[in-house]
Amino acid sequence: MAVDGVNNNEPVYWFKDEKEQTEQTEKSNSLDKDAFLRLLMTQMSHQDPLNPMEDKDMLAQLAQFSSLEQMNNLNTNFNSAKDEIVESLENMNNNQIDANIEILKEIINIKKAMEAYGGDESQKDSTEG
């Protein structure tokens, strides 16, 4: 229903499904490197000049940042190593399949050669009887 040209049938808020809400919550709960740096810079720029942060607190935060950086690097390295291992296993699997096909071809060729050389035993039995 429209009152004074305003349509009141429009929804005020669209509810998001649970998956979208969960993804947004996970994103907001996780801090990446950039967020950590912004937080550190904001803290340093708003500290009291007469009562600055103690050295040990600053060093602890820098150590946390260094640990975070190293964990991100390890995660990247593990993902790339995983991809290389998967690719290597796929190549090995394809090589094994190709080798099995070649072996089967050779077995078929040997069978044909034996049949040509000695004749088929089932044909000999049918002609003798």
Tell me the number of strands: 2
The 3D shape can be described as: elongated
Strand % is: under 5%
**Rg measurement, Å:** 36 Å
- Residue runs with pLDDT of under 50 for 5 or more positions: none
Could you tell me how far the N terminus lies from the C terminus, measured between alpha carbons in angstroms? 99 Å
Q: What structural class results from the helix and strand content?
A: mainly alpha
Helix content: over 70%
Q: What is the string of helix and strand elements? A: EEHHHH
Order of strands, main sheet, comes to 1-2
pLDDT averaged over residues: 77
Largest sheet: 2 strands, antiparallel
Number of helices: 4
Protein name: Flagellar hook capping protein
Keywords: Bacterial flagellum biogenesis, Cell projection, Cilium, Flagellum
InterPro entries: FlgD
Family: Belongs to the FlgD family.
What does this 3D model show about the protein?
The chain is mainly α and 129 residues long. The chain has a domain at 65-117. Helices cover 75% and strands 3% of the residues. It has helices at 18-29, 33-45, 55-118, 121-128, and strands at 2-3, 6-7. The chain has a two-stranded antiparallel ribbon with strand order 1-2. The longest helix has 64 residues, at 55-118. The termini are far apart. It comes from Acidilutibacter cellobiosedens. It holds the Pfam family FlgD. This is Flagellar hook capping protein.
